[in-house]
Amino acid sequence: MSDTVTAEMINQLDSNLELNLDRRAKERLLLYINLLLQGLRKQRLTGERSAQGLIDKHLYDSLYPLKLINLKQDGKILDLGSGGGFPGLPLKICLPRLEMYLADANRRKTMFLQNTSGQLSLDKIYFINDRAENIGRDPEHREQYDYVTCRAVAETAVLAELSLPLLKTGGQAILYKGPRGEAEAAAAEKAIKSCGGYLEKTYDYKLAGGEKRFLFIIKKFESTPSQYPRAVGKPGKKPIRGAAIPEEN
């Protein structure tokens, strides 16, 4: 496993994405990926374990929405299922005025996120160690966020039920999906509508290695009914689908 990231690799990423990041953001991204590589020696934080793979697959994907969406610089954002920090930490690094909440049910991953954020000297960043279903029913978090991000967590119908209860009316869920994204989005239409949202925009793009990705922007137009999200585990076991997801060829 390649165990170091260089400034040149971060500069190339910035050039590929055409983000024109400032020096401080690049330094923090460099430090973050190297801290993640160190953390991977002790626990499973992400499936990818090489330095170049983390940049080309995870970091590139996490930052791609900045090419497409003008996030409010002082917005309040919750990243569901943060794991090793994607996409929440890279977004926070590049938009330091964001009020960022990183949520994960795994205590060890939450501790890694806390320690890493401290070493990155980030402020206005908070940590929630709990299941998304519980967070969505907590008055402290329910309908409090401008944005909710989810990457590689669950199918779109499940993510709609977990993310929309957390959004303010007018807020947006930003869902990162893989090659089956279009089929998932069609099957999730009922869940999105049931929880007070609609699919506002769909973007498709490719990672640096050519892998196809989709980004769904779900806009919340009315308050989510009180029965959502359902009890812990139920959204995943019985998604609110309007249609079945076709099998892969």
Describe the model.
With 249 residues, the chain is α/β, with parallel strands linked by helices. It has a domain at 71-237: Vaccinia Virus protein VP39 (Rossmann fold, 3-Layer(aba) Sandwich), CATH 3.40.50. It has ten helices and seven strands. Strands 3-2-1-4-5-7-6 form a seven-stranded mixed beta sheet, with helices on both faces. α1 crosses α2 (23-40), α1 runs parallel beside α3 (51-63) and α2 packs antiparallel against α4. The radius of gyration is 17 Å and the shape is globular. The model has no long low-confidence stretch (mean pLDDT 93).
Short account of what is shown:
The chain is built from 10 helices and 7 strands. The chain is α/β, with parallel strands linked by helices. A 7-stranded mixed beta sheet has the order 3-2-1-4-5-7-6, with helices on both faces.
List the keywords.
37% helix, alpha/beta, 10 helices, seven-stranded mixed β-sheet, 249 residues, Rossmann fold
Strand order of the largest sheet: 3-2-1-4-5-7-6
User: Strand portion, in percent?
Assistant: 15-25%
Quaternary state, please?
single chain
The CATH homologous superfamily of the domain at 71-237 is named Vaccinia Virus protein VP39
Examine the coordinates and then state which fold CATH places here, giving the name of the CATH topology of the domain at 71-237. Rossmann fold
CATH first level of the domain at 71-237:
Alpha Beta
Spans where pLDDT lies below 50 across 5 or more residues: none
Total beta-strand segments: 7
Per CATH, the architecture of the domain at 71-237 is 3-Layer(aba) Sandwich
Distance separating the two termini: 32 Å
Helix content: 25-40%
Compressed to H and E, one letter per element, the order equals HHHEHEHEHEHEHHEEH
Whole-number mean pLDDT:
93
Total number of helices: 10
Classification by helices and strands:
alpha/beta
* C-alpha-based Rg, rounded: 17 Å
The profile of the biggest β sheet is: 7 strands, mixed
Cα shape: globular
